[in-house]
Amino acid sequence: MKDLRRNAVCCLLVIFCAAVLLSGCGENPAASDESSYDTGSMYWDVEGVQQAPTTAAWTHVWGQSFNHQMIGSLGTVAGKKLYQGGQGLLELDLATGMELLNVNWTKQHPVYLESAPLLWQGKLYGILSEQKETELPGVGLLYQRLACLDVTTGNVLWQSDEVGTWEKRCGHPLLLGGKVYLAACFPAPPSGKADTTDVHPAVGIWDASTGKLTGRIPLPTGTFPGDSKLVSDGAYIYGNATYSASRGHICSSLFCYDPATAQTRWSITYPTTSKDFVSIRTALAVDGKTLITVFQTTDQPRGVINGVFTEGAQHRTAAAFDTPTGHLLWTKKEAISDTIHTLQVPDLAMRPGVAFLTIHDGTLIAVDERTGVQAWSFNAGTHSFPFRGETAVSLVDWYLKLVTMATRDVLYVQDGESCLVALDPTTGAKLWQKTLLTREEQEAEKKQICCIVPVDKGLIVVTANTSDMRPIIELWK
């Protein structure tokens, strides 16, 4: 069980990082020209690293620990600076690693900058989570607020009302046209109280300058805001909603919102099936007139066989939609064998004309975004190794997950915590491979990979020793 618990913690940390990178954290080009990251297509407009990095150009150890909380250490690179979230805000000079700003807002309760900050007109935007005691002694929960920070001082300029909790989380913010969009709970459960209060999910729209809530995009009743992804092509907002239609019946929908008219252009139910789902996970990206989605669904449980609970069948579905109309362009579907145990969740990256999709068995494929025709495939699963984990009936191998990051000329593939692989995005040919953590480091649970961010001809790599959870930030050149 130790290895299984270790993988669960690792998965949560990586999910935080992946969710941010795939859901709108990092700057949108329509909001600012300072960031190199396009939240619509999951694409960094930077030059990749053509040869394997050898040593770190600089290393900075942040003195503010996560206090053993499973809060991802996430950063944003804008211009020549790195803005790092955690139990406070850290600003580093990208060239030298010199510390420019280090603030901590914690007073009575621990406060975390949970999401990678977005930069716009001298202000940073992100989710501040405050850990407060509950009615149960020794048990604390996180309560989330959308916050605006002064980029020079790190002071909090404004905060929203609570928009989520650890159980009913909000999504990740997206900036467009001076507005901040965020899938949130309205209202959130009262601070320190049991999470039983009914919430009304919607995508809130805040004025980025004043913090005033100016509007909402309705979401279906029963939506889980933390599962909603938001992306933009610079003109429209695209998102998904995963919601509980009835007990044990989970549905999903997609929508396109026009900020100019404050109206929803189109909304569709997808994926559609005659069966009930018990869970749905989603990745979302947009490029020009193409919206790409990847869904992982689990059918209703098959039942109890010989006293053993049997889970429902799992499927992975990729689909493309025409952004002006919402019409389906193509779809691909695969069944996930119940003999393979993987932590892979839907992952998606795009560069102009091409989408990169991950398959549960450790395969990465490149497809034409308009036709779905496959250009190449790469079996990344051969680079990782399984962890031995326990189930109720037997020992199984749990494999780590892939995270893709596309730049102008290099496609990075993070293989769990094991290694980072660089591919030619046109052909899929491997350019280089570099170890992140050795098998011994991972099995001993001494160190964790928190975040990797591409920069021009380099990579920001953030790790943490599990003994103190202090972020170790390195620039690989």
Protein model, in words:
- There is one protein chain.
- The longest helix has 22 residues, at 2-23.
- The relative contact order is 0.15.
- The chain has 2 helices and 40 strands.
- The protein is 6% helix and 52% strand.
- The protein has a domain at 235-338: Thrombin, subunit H.
- Strands 8, 9, 10, 11 and 12 form a 5-stranded antiparallel β-sheet that branches. A 4-stranded antiparallel β-sheet has the order 3-40-39-38.
SSE inventory with pairings:
Layout: H1 2-23, E1 37-38, E2 43-44, E3 56-61, E4 75-78, E5 81-86, E6 88-93, E7 99-103, E8 111-113, E9 118-120, E10 123-133, E11 140-150, E12 156-165, E13 174-176, E14 179-186, E15 200-207, E16 213-218, E17 230-232, E18 237-246, E19 249-258, E20 263-269, E21 277-287, E22 290-299, E23 303-305, E24 308-310, E25 314-322, E26 328-336, E27 341-342, E28 348-351, E29 354-359, E30 363-368, E31 374-379, E32 387-390, E33 395-399, E34 402-406, E35 411-415, E36 419-423, E37 430-435, H2 439-443, E38 447-455, E39 458-465, E40 471-476
Parallel strand pairs: 27-33
Antiparallel strand pairs: 1-2, 3-40, 4-5, 5-6, 6-7, 8-10, 9-10, 10-11, 11-12, 13-14, 14-15, 15-16, 17-18, 18-19, 19-20, 21-22, 22-25, 23-24, 25-26, 28-29, 29-30, 30-31, 32-33, 34-35, 35-36, 36-37, 38-39, 39-40
